[in-house]
Every structure is written in structure tokens, then in C-alpha cells.
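I would like you to sit down with the pair of lines that follows and say whether C-alpha cells and residues agree.
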Amino acid sequence: MLPSLFLSHGSPMVALTRDPAHDFLAGLGAALGRPRAILVASAHWETAVPMVNAVARNRTIHDFGGFPRALYELRYEAPGDPVLAEQVADLLGSAGLQAGIDRARGLDHGAWVPLLLAYPQADVPVLQISVQSHLGPAHHFEVGRALAPLRAQGVLVIGSGSFTHDLSRFRGQEADAPEAPDVAAFSAWMEAALLAGRRCELLTYRHKAPFAAAQHPTEEHLLPLFVAMGAAGAESRAERLHASVSYGMLRMDAYAFS
């Protein structure tokens, strides 16, 4: 059975720029094998209740500005799976979670940037599910638990966000800037809690982890982590697949849950 994953997708430029995170994502598909389908909980789709997209073929959403033209020319038009989308909505409903279906939305860069590297042929069906940034980690853990049966059907569940994400510190930083001490302290606490399976502490990370609010002024980029945790089950443990930092403040860590 495939693990569920948390991936830090970073700047959209990771699709074009060779760095440790790019190289990790480029080798991920070969390491995992080909899933039947992929379901991505992306930090870049925020809605009031969980929504899943149901389209025949995904359009590529370039939901960013100020980048080189080459980035906007990239396309990732993977097929969708409307039947699987209905199943996702049913699983959420059976778990007591209100859910809806969006029959127009494509893939934002939280989904297509890592998948462009991991599965460049764009021939695996891809669906997206939204996050609810006002509902916090415990809600997203329950969303993941509702989706857990999909893993037995060969569906790869991915939470795509960022291990740290204070973009107010981004401007003026060099890509290879040294890691800031508060970024390192938060990441070390999160890593220890994940590897030890301290679920209760993780669900209340904002009150327990050092510098938590500074690393995530808003929570949408960490919430996909809890979807991935939940999809692996209440007793799941984490394995760190990758760790690197960009611009001194953007951690690109990735974890598998099984």
C-alpha cells in the first residue's frame, strides 16, 4: 500500500531551478511507483467546506505573478477522475464532514509543480481537495482519516504545502542564504514530534512548537500535513524523505506516513 505524503512545494520556480528540493521531487515518482490516481490537498485552494474537483482533464492554473515567462508556459494537463471525486465526497460525508464537488477547477501550483517533476508524463489521474484554514489541524486530520480507504485502492494521497512559510521574510533573501535560527528551531521540534508519533502535540503545534506563529502567520501551508497524517491512520508514524531550506526561511521538508 502506498504511503500518504506531505510535500513542501516551495516557490513555483522549483519546477525550473535545479536545487536539492527539485532533485528530490524529480526522483519521487520512480521511488514510489505509479499509483492508480493522485489526490492532492493543496494549500492554494481554500474553501469554507472540503471541495473536490471533478473534471475530465485538468487545466493548469498559474496562480502567481512576477515570475519568468518560461514558468507560465508550463502545462500539466493530467486527466481527472469524476467517479473517484464522487467517492471522495461520499467518504467525507460518511465521516460527518460536509463536502462539495467543483466541476470546473483545475490544478493550482501546489499540485502541478511537484507532480510535473514526480510524474512528468501527466498520465496519472489527479484530483484536488481544498483546505479550510479557519478550522485548524484537528479538522484536517479527520479529513485525512476519512480518505484513508483510498490508499487501499492505489490512490496516492498528498498534502502539498510548506514546512515553514513566512513570506514576509522572502524579499531580499538569496536562494542559498543560511537557515534562520528560528526556522531551524521550529523544524527540529516538528521533526522530533513527527518521528516520535506525538499526534496530540502536533495537533496543538501552534501552542507547543517554538516560533510556530512566526513560521506560519497563517496556517494554510501546514494544514495539508495533517491531511497526510490522517490518511495513514491514527497510529501512523512518519519517515522524513527530504529536508532542505531555500532563501534561509522556506523549509522544503517532505514526509511519508504509513
About this structure: The chain has one domain: 4-257.
